[in-house]
Write a structure and sequence with these properties.
alpha+beta; 3-stranded antiparallel sheet; 4 helices; 50% helix; 22% strand; elongated
Length: 129
């Protein structure tokens, strides 16, 4: 009896995962994927218009899982494609440049504070940031 129960549960899980699809919300102009949801079928137009679609976003239903960080929507073919390595490198560089700028700005602020208030300890300066 226990084996029969486990087999039934296993079959249900395999069957449900085999028919699962991915609902992809993406930006209409850039193809950037904003959100993904696992569904069994396309939701009604009422649900799509209420929760997913807007002036700048649209949805697409695909059979495969989607990785937001390495994939995007090809706007011409309405299909999921991998982002080129060059574009991924450019994104990573932009993020690193932004972090470096924030760190440089923080260091300049620390130097200005030390110039104005000369008797602050390192711990007091760290407490300000």
């Amino acid at each position: 009896m226990k084996k029969l129960f486990l087999i039934t549960i296993s079959l249900l899980i395999v069957t449900n995962s085999a028919f699962a699809k991915t609902l992809v919300k993406y930006h209409k102009n850039t193809g950037e994927i904003l959100q993904t949801n696992t569904v069994s079928e396309m939701p009604s137009d009422e649900i799509l218009n209420d929760r997913f679609k807007s002036e700048t976003t649209d949805v697409l239903l695909v059979d495969n899982p989607v990785d937001i960080s390495t994939q995007k929507v090809d706007l011409n073919k309405k299909k999921i494609v991998n982002i080129s390595q060059g574009e991924l490198d450019n994104r990573a560089k932009a993020i690193k440049d932004k972090q470096d700028k924030l760190e440089a700005d923080k260091q300049k602020a620390i130097e200005k504070i030390r110039a104005i208030v000369k008797d602050l300890t390192d711990e007091e300066v760290r407490a300000l940031f």
